[in-house]
Request: fold
Amino acid sequence: MVKKILLLILFGIILVFALKLSLGNEEKICNGNYFLLELESSSGDFQLVNKSIQQGCAPDSKGDFEYSYDLVKNNVSVYSGNFGSGVLFVDNFEEQEMQGGAVAVDNQKIFLTIPYNSDADNIEISKQGEKIFEGKIYDSGSTSCKLK
Reply:
C-alpha cells in the first residue's frame, strides 16, 4: 500500500513537472503581445506602411515560405520567421465543377504578425538569403508628444 502511494506521488510530481515545462515553452512563444506590420508589396519590393503592438499571440511563422524575416538588435537576429507573398488562391464554381488555383498578385497589402520582442531594433526581410527590406521596429506603439 505504501509503495502504491509513493508511486502515485512520484507520478503526480512527474506530471506537474511536465505540465510546467510545456507551459514554459508556450510562454516563450506567446508573451502576450505581438507586432502587427502593414506592408505594401509591389513586384517583390516592400514598404512599411504601419506598425503597432497588439495584445494577443502571433501565429507560428515557421515553414517553407518565399520570404524570411529577422528581428534584429545590433546586427544579431533575436527572432526569425517566414511568410509567403505574391500568390492568391482562388476557387470558382463553373458548370457544377470546382475550378481555380494559384494566381500571381503583383501589388498587395500584407499584414504580418510577429511575436513581440523588446530587444529588437529593426526588421529585415530577405528572399533566398538576400536582404530586400530593412525598417525600424523599436518605435512601434509609441506616440509623439507635444512639448510646450
